[in-house]
Design brief:
single chain, alpha+beta, Glucose Permease (Domain IIA), eight-stranded mixed sheet, 27% strand, globular, Cell_wall_metabolism_enzyme, metalloendopeptidase activity, M23ase_b-sheet_dom, Peptidase M23-like protein, Dup_hybrid_motif
Length: 222
């Protein structure tokens, strides 16, 4: 399959270019994070907003297979030390709450739910698509809770259709506003939810299941 042969609609409604998007680093190599109280969502949000503003951008982007230092803020990701889930499986698009989110291709609603709790996804929608005779699933996390109202499993969604909006904290899982966008070839039995991070020992397994979201986003920044 040649991804470049497919005409995907921009998930944020516009191209994510060098002019409107900056890459954000949330790995341990970012020394700013050592002095930031990540458990304070307002402070975390101010940091993210300033990074985007200082670059003259509208969006911050990044995260696919990034070793994240920010997950220490929540016990959602904590297991044993060897299995601590800190490898990010999607791409995050940081921007203002209320920003519209569009379906990049035709599909239908596979499932949705409010994954409530500090550090979780909050409102989440998962779409099911047919791509070159294979099923591909796309996940949209940290949405407005109201985006779950009035939608139904199996509901058809057209390419370019308004799907949801980037949610505010605390209802979005208590994160600075952003869209978690992730692709999966296999839902692994999950409904309304799917791991957005994995442990280092499981990277190879999940990399096969979760292709690079930039195959659809096509951002020049990544």
């Amino acid at each position: 399959m040649n991804w470049n042969d497919i005409d995907f609609f921009p998930v944020m409604g516009e191209k994510l270019s060098m002019e409107n998007t900056v890459k954000l680093d949330f790995s341990p190599s970012n020394s700013d994070l050592e002095n930031l109280d990540l458990s304070n969502t307002a402070a975390f949000d101010e940091y993210v907003s300033q990074q985007i503003k200082n670059s003259g951008s509208k969006y911050g982007i990044g995260g696919y297979l990034e070793h994240r230092a920010i997950y220490r803020r929540s016990t959602v990701f904590a297991t044993t030390e060897a299995d601590f889930r800190n490898i990010h499986l999607g791409v995050d698009l940081w921007t203002d709450a209320g920003a519209p989110v569009f379906s990049p291709m035709d599909g239908k609603i596979h499932s949705f739910q409010d994954n409530a709790g500090f550090g979780n996804y909050g409102a989440t929608i998962i779409l099911e698509h047919e791509l070159d005779e294979k099923k591909l699933y796309s996940l949209y996390g940290h949405l407005f809770l109201s985006d779950l109202d009035g939608i139904e499993i199996g509901q058809e969604i057209k390419s370019g259709e308004l799907l949801a909006h980037v949610g505010p904290f605390p209802e979005n899982g208590d994160w600075p506003p952003h869209l978690h966008f992730q692709l999966m070839w296999d839902m692994m039995g999950n409904v309304g939810d799917f791991p957005g991070v994995c442990s280092k020992r499981d990277v190879e397994k999940f990399q096969l299941i979760c292709p690079d979201p930039n195959l659809i986003l096509r951002s020049e920044v990544l």
